[in-house]
């Protein structure tokens, strides 16, 4: 076995330039596509112009040009690669990988959906390596041959450690969510924001006088991200924005997709932000974002025990604590973002130094084992935001899931 591999990738421009990336060999774990139970199979796709059948129900592979697929995309360096679908840039984890050429472009599908399309001959991501994708449109990766994942593809949304929103997952919070987006007047007698809904409903937020409804269920056949949580606000200038939703990702192979034991595909929603003081007014917590959408399409799809495919909802933000005279006291905590298989918990309510008027607790996010929970209310404190609903995981092809794999929410089989 050689000590290193050469990864060839094409430039994002139309020019035929290419570059070489040298990285450590990811190693041989004895789980190749053939001996790991994922056998090469004919895609059942008629590739002549008159009789083509799409591999994916969401992305018509027959309408995509440049069917040669380009050269392999092999991500072996330890750390995080970041793909920005707005800036059309892929950067690597090492200082010398400030910008990595790739075969990628924005592309409009026949149904009007704008995607960021990456075409490759084959895709491999090593264990300990993450491809983090952010931006305003869904990410679609189409490989002519096998896709083998030992690392992570992450299109989730999350907050920073100090409870600030960071870059949203690809295609999250689309305009289609506006009809499900609940924003409420959230002061010390008002509710917080409801959780974002998508594959399941978001949790509501309650107070003595008002309620912030959770977002409803939506099952679109188009590829799109999930819906953000409802904001808690006094007006347009004074508001706490809801948690951002998980993004949208389609992984398509004309041959096979293999997720090995260390592989993860993440499209979870971010937690809602905690309630805070705005002068002498207490603003309640905001709702958690829903999970996004993950689409896997290939003739053969194998998910090994230990692998994770997750699109859970984020927890709602905790309400602010209120003093006995009605003035706000301690801010509520952020809800947890849905980054792993565990339920994302709602944020704790802020404490109060007088009269114990703590803020309400944010609702837990949804997963395959539990619906989103509503944010709670207290007698005087600000209300917690509702938890976000789950997203969608959709499979097209023959699926083999080994014991110990975690898929949340439950995947649905889509037929063309």
What would you note in describing this structure?
This protein is mainly β. It has no helices and 27 strands. The chain has strands spanning 4-10, 18-24, 73-75, 79-84, 89-91, 104-108, 114-120, 123-125, 129-134, 139-143, 147-149, 152-154, 184-185, 205-206, 211-212, 232-233, 239-240, 248-253, 256-259, 264-266, 276-278, 281-283, 293-303, 308-310, 392-401, 406-408, 412-413. The strands form 6 sheets. Strands 3, 6, 7, 8, 10, 11, 18, 19, 23, 25 and 27 form an 11-stranded mixed sheet that branches. Strands 5-4-9-12-20-24-26 form a 7-stranded mixed sheet, with no helix packed on it. A hairpin with a 5-residue loop joins strand 6 (104-108) and strand 7 (114-120). It is elongated.
What's the short story on this structure?
With 416 residues, the protein is an all-beta fold. Helices cover 0% and strands 28% of the residues.
Q: What is the CA-CA span between the terminal residues?
A: 42 Å
For the secondary structure, the number of strands is 27
Could you give a short account of the major beta sheet? 11 strands, mixed
Which stretches of 5+ consecutive residues score pLDDT under 50?
A: 1-48, 180-189
Structural class: mainly beta
Strand content: 25-35%
What's the multimeric state? single chain
Please render the helix and strand layout as text.
Layout: E1 4-10, E2 18-24, E3 73-75, E4 79-84, E5 89-91, E6 104-108, E7 114-120, E8 123-125, E9 129-134, E10 139-143, E11 147-149, E12 152-154, E13 184-185, E14 205-206, E15 211-212, E16 232-233, E17 239-240, E18 248-253, E19 256-259, E20 264-266, E21 276-278, E22 281-283, E23 293-303, E24 308-310, E25 392-401, E26 406-408, E27 412-413
